Amino acid sequence: xxxxxxxxxxxxxxxxxxxxxxxxxWKLIISQFNTLSAATQDCTVDSQFTxxxxxxxxxxxxxxxxxxxxxxxxxxxxxxSPIPEIPDTRVLLHSVPKFSTSNAYQLLTYHGALWKPAExxxxxxxxxxxKIFLWLAFKDxxxxxxxxxxxxxxxxxxxxxxxxxxSADHIILRCKNANSLWEKMNLLHLANHSESSSAxxxxxxxxxxxxxxxxPIWFAACAYTLWKARNNMIFERQIDNMQFxxxxxxxxxxxxxxxxxxxxKERILSWCAGL
Length: 275
Ligand SMILES: [Zn+2]
Prior knowledge:
Reverse transcriptase zinc-binding domain-containing protein, RVT-Znf
């Protein structure tokens, strides 16, 4: 069973084909592990078995599914150690057709699992400028006061409204306007206890099944409006009250719903009606 692990990985992700002579354990592995891939093309089985135990190091950025598979794999490998080598059958992951320009391109450009919040950013209904804002916010790359200090553009990293460092997560989750907004949506506790805005959005998506699919859309509108209110205060000396902010969110979403299909549009408008 562990022969496959003894062999040097191919240059890219590989998948094993089941054979009639496979042992039950081997069949189990083939049936369960589809996504694990080698960290480097030089990864060897021997390098993963040290001091009489397995230390399988794969891609540093594993998806949730890959983490589960790795955990199961480690449990199976726990009772086993490498044995003398016999030939194994391996093929490229994209086996049909066996080789094509498209498959080769996918293999060459494979960078492991996607960053999870990415799927909440690149949504058709969200306009391009807001997508870029969200991406920067999730990565904490906005020109907040804290970031401006780290770039030596400013000396004061604090929020003008609260005794806290002004980061993207502070503006979106914990600042004065954010507190009022999330409290109105009964999400204040979740917002204040989320370690990042992307974690907050993930928690909202996980627990909200009634409006499935539109959480990233309304979150994007809320976060962008909070950011614009912050900019109005900093650059225009204009204080946006909560009523104005909610009106902005509602207007923004109604406009964006025009880009959505009928079902999504209906859910967005229904969500706006509850504001
Ligand atoms: Zn603040």
